[in-house]
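User: For documentation purposes, I need each entry recorded in a consistent format: the amino acid sequence on its own, followed directly by the corresponding structure tokens. There are two entries in this batch. Please keep commentary to a minimum and don't merge the entries.

Assistant: Recorded as requested. Entry 1:
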Amino acid sequence: MSIRPKYARAIFAGVKKYELRRIVGLPSIPEGSLIVVYASGNVKSIVGEFTAGKVYRGTPENIWNIASGKENGVGEDAWNYIKGSKKAMAIEVRNPKLYPRPVTLDEIRRIIPGWMPPMSYRQIDDGDPIVELIIKPLRSYRSLAG
């Protein structure tokens, strides 16, 4: 899942409790899914992961009522992001974990030539090169180090 750097930082600082998405033909995210975070913008790196808790889908107004508020780390800029869509989604952030180090887009492309981060998100499965060559080694390193 591509997330702007300031929101990724807020997730891993434990401040942001929901990730909001406009729904435009995007598949559902089941509760319990592992979300790998690609920090976009000037960071351009895979930085960590979190588990999807409850996933809410509905009108932007309904999603805003569920996810907004200082206690959830979701501010007015999130409303500006979802308000024009027909449907929106709020993904509860559970167990955010930073990887031992970010893996930059340049590094990823040296391992997997031509790899492109998702515009919003995409499903990846075991066997996918990004899982086998990047994510699993990061997770193993983290478990050994921590």
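Entry 2:
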Amino acid sequence: MDGETLSIVKRVVPVYPLFSRKRGEEGKAVILVTIQSGRVTDAEVERSSGSTRLDAAALRAARQWVFSDNVTVRARIPFLFRLDT
């Protein structure tokens, strides 16, 4: 299931790590989350961005998301890290 198809109460945007910005790191991380009663109870990297720093930032953000759906479900949340040029 796509996490963005659920009813999102709180969406947290990841902080782009400064070191990653300086190194020009970009990528897309896909985080697989387990949602129980609207809260993320587990999160793991399903597909890496290619950078451990970007993946960690995506995980931190995903763990803070809150949903209004009162279900237990696993969902994918994509996070795109792109530098504006």
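Summary note for entry 2:
Strands lie at 8-10, 27-36, 39-47, 66-67, 72-81.
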